[in-house]
Write a structure and sequence with these properties.
3 copies of one chain form a homotrimer. Chain A contains 6 helices and no strands. Chain A is an all-alpha fold and 208 residues long. Chain A has a single domain, classed as Phosphate transport system protein phou homolog 2, domain 2 (Methane Monooxygenase Hydroxylase, Chain G, domain 1, Up-down Bundle). In chain A, helix 1 (10-36) runs parallel beside helix 3 (75-101), helix 1 (10-36) packs antiparallel against helix 4 and helix 2 (40-67) packs antiparallel against helix 3. The longest helix of chain A is centred in the last third of the chain and has 35 residues, at 173-207. Chain A starts with 9 loop residues before the first helix and ends with a helix. The relative contact order of chain A is 0.15. At the A-B interface, helix 6 of A face helix 5 and helix 6 of B.
Chain lengths: 208, 208, 208
């Protein structure tokens, strides 16, 4: 017996993979924005476009969820994954937009470090997500999650050092306020990636 | 056969409507406080009273939830609606109290814009909630939700402009810190209204 | 018929009690750090050790959850309790670390008040948790929850007064930024204790 069409449920995996690739692109553009620091408005608006694209993916996942009677993974896990991936993109865009509207003169080295960590973290998310499709791939999920957790701790350490420096070397207090906000967006983005990792581990355990 | 008394489950809808009206009043008093900017302490304490009244409604909803075996909509949706409406009132009060304790001299125009958006957003919530009572009204819910999402985006745009202005025209950095906090309360209040809209849409789809 | 070994499910209660005792120790060390304000680095690293210990307990609870087919209380309540207790410890550590990295000169009296409230709040949590083990103890849970709610309101009032003072007596605006952050960690820790109380009340009602 042959199935002439892809089961609708496969669409969830397609959409999650599309969303994960979008995060990797967003983190990449953020890192590039910080590194090059030119054509700022244009680069930020590219990130905003990715954020709109991410919103669109999220809405398609939720619509698919409401239209599907039996889902390949638990409904609440699907909703959680969609929401947390949406958060990551919002936070990446928030960091980019804040640098623009706060008219920062030059990004700090710490911001560069955080953006690089975010590139690696979203890449791990993007590598982990396709493992959901096949039962024999599920046992590869933990290695990605361990790396995501490690990167989240690294981001934490960078932010603590960055905040200490901000106050210690403080020349302009307005800069302190601006950078605290920008660092906070980037650190929270890695926290949300860790939430994604936790959902993935839960799914793995339930399906094992 | 006739049912001589209103089923207990109707009470949930009564309480949600009472809570929504309370939000509209709270947002209205906040907008008035900002517009008039006189008798400040008295006006703020009126808003605090509404916040206490909101707490009371929330507790009655949760107590009713525990006392009811079969609920008219999913238990988790009831809890979510109650919590998010409670958050909106807390944030409205937070914005009012912060203006008082931070001893701001004059509210900004941006604060006025945000308060006006909040009046419109809570009014949409209050218009959407009664649609839950009757199956033939459920299909009116999306139009309210679309408007709530639009208003939330508007609030976002106002806050971003307001923050850019704060840093750009910055005279007193203490004012920057104070207004960022106050704007954040008001923007988060519109975010929570969007959460309410999402729950309402979910309820509609499940009952359709 | 006799059961020769402790059912595995009892382990959840053991782990929750261990976690609650860890919170009480953490809050105690924070209060001591603020009171004495000497050997700061050493004291903060002791709190960080407790935070790592807390992480370890959380992981054991989640692992136990995945390994247990029938749980003594609802799975989602177990996950919620574990997460919220983890949050409280993170926030206690966050307050301690911030005082160190921000190089604050002397803790404020308000910080002392908040740390003392946190000691009392975590002690109530720790007194309430063992009530979960036995059905005939469940009805003692509300008295702890009422006290936790009262303490959370007290913390709120202290923070509002503290923030008003910060801006009113403001000498150094960098101090305003630092203390707002530290107070926020401590207040949020009492909020998370209130979340724990709400979960405990829910469990009680469901098992009654």
């Amino acid at each position: 017996m042959r199935f002439p069409f892809i089961p609708r449920e496969e669409k969830f995996f397609d959409l999650f993979e599309e969303s994960a690739r979008n995060l990797v692109r967003g983190a990449g553009l953020l890192a590039e924005l910080i590194e090059k620091w030119e054509n700022i408005e244009e680069r930020v608006s590219e990130i905003t476009e990715l954020e709109h694209h991410g919103d669109n993916i999220t809405h398609r996942i939720i619509a698919q969820l409401h239209a599907t009677f039996i889902t390949p993974i638990d409904r609440e896990d699907i909703a959680q994954l969609a929401d947390r991936m949406d958060d990551v993109m919002d936070l990446i865009e928030g960091a980019a937009v804040d640098m623009l509207i706060y008219e920062v003169k030059r990004p700090t080295e710490r911001a560069q470090e955080l953006a690089d960590i975010l590139v690696r973290t979203t890449s791990e998310v993007s590598a982990a997500i396709p493992r959901l499709r096949r039962r024999n791939q599920l046992n590869k999920i933990p290695e990605h999650c361990i790396e995501i957790n490690r990167l989240e701790n690294e981001a934490d350490t960078v932010v603590r050092a960055a905040l200490a420096e901000l106050f210690h070397n403080q020349i302009d207090l307005a800069d302190v306020i601006k950078w605290r906000e920008i660092y906070d967006h980037m650190e929270t983005a890695t926290d949300r990636c860790e939430d994604i990792a936790n959902v993935l581990e839960g799914v793995m355990i339930k399906r094992a």
